[in-house]
Amino acid sequence: MQDKHSGVEKEHMGRRRFPYALRWLLACVALVVVFAVVPIRAEPDTGVLIVRWCVTVVMLAVLTIAIRWQAVRQLREPDAPLGALVVGILAGLLLFALIDYGLAVHRPEQFDGLDTRVDGLYFALSTLLTVGFGDVSAQGQTARVVLCVQMAFNITAIAGSASLVAGKLAERARTHDRRDR
After folding, report:
1. What pLDDT was estimated at residue 16?
2. Which residues cross the membrane (predicted)?
């Protein structure tokens, strides 16, 4: 079977993919840096705390819309880059890790065993993967409500997107194998 792309087109396609990959990698690194440095401290001012929670809800809504948009794009455009969806998955995980950690900082009675950002990330990841070792647990009603939202988001946005990414990668690998034969 003859390859339908000329050498120039292949070279152009290869160059175009590298910047996409670099862009998504830098976005992931930036998300991890933001996760590591965003200030979360116990705030005595209730007004500031309410504003932070409102901003968090807006961020979660924007992230949900962005992930949905990228998922629909993947279904409509088979060759669309997967990077934005991967960044969305990481952003969702890190946002919930910050939410869990922030709740533990502001209301320490809500969680048992969640004392650091790493604990928050560990807990968010174990919740996403449903492994829950029991070393970190939600004790308060607020933490349990947050976890219900987190689990619903994990099932719909993150797990659905991860499944879509895996399926698209497998499909692209099969297509690439057929072209190489």
Report:
1. 56
2. 20-38, 50-69, 81-101, 145-166
